[in-house]
Amino acid sequence: MFYKSRRIQFLFKSIIVYFLLLVLLRIIFFSIFNSESETYILGNLFKALFIGIRFDLRLAVLVNIPLMIFCAIPIVNVIHSIWMRRISDLYIYLFTGMLLLFYSLDMGHYSYLGRRVDISVLRFLENPQISAQMVWES
């Protein structure tokens, strides 16, 4: 019989949850901004979706690397120790909040300018008061 490590199960579930969240956000973005007038070649659509899903899986694993390192330390027991669990939960909540904030900013940026968020968005931080006023008025 195989030994089932609760640490590995914890990490695996965390990766799966992040992966499903990212895929769901990708599908929501596509369904919101999908234009009825545009025609898609089915092969190109599946290829783009496949590339996006691969990126989402990589991002889900990268997000969990600190937790993997944290779980690999023998002294640290994320499953039994209340403090270690709280620290890992805090990391998960903070990163999930940042991820949802970034996706909402990306959707707002795309709906306003028709472009995904890239490095050029930093130019809006040169004068944040004017940028905030523009967002408030629109």
Describe the structure.
The chain is an all-alpha fold and 138 residues long. The chain has one domain (6-137). Helices cover 72% and strands 0% of the residues. It contains five helices and no strands. It has helices spanning 6-33, 42-63, 65-72, 82-113, 128-137. Helix 1 (6-33) runs antiparallel to helix 2 (42-63). It is flat, with a radius of gyration of 19 Å. This is Sulfatase N-terminal domain-containing protein. The chain crosses the membrane at residues 12-33, 62-84, 90-113. Keywords: Membrane, Transmembrane, Transmembrane helix.
Question: Which descriptors would you attach to this protein?
Answer:
single chain, 138 residues, mainly alpha, 5 helices, 0% strand, flat, Sulfatase N-terminal domain-containing protein, membrane, transmembrane, transmembrane helix
Offer a concise description of the structure.
This protein has 138 residues and is mainly α. The protein is built from 5 helices and no strands.
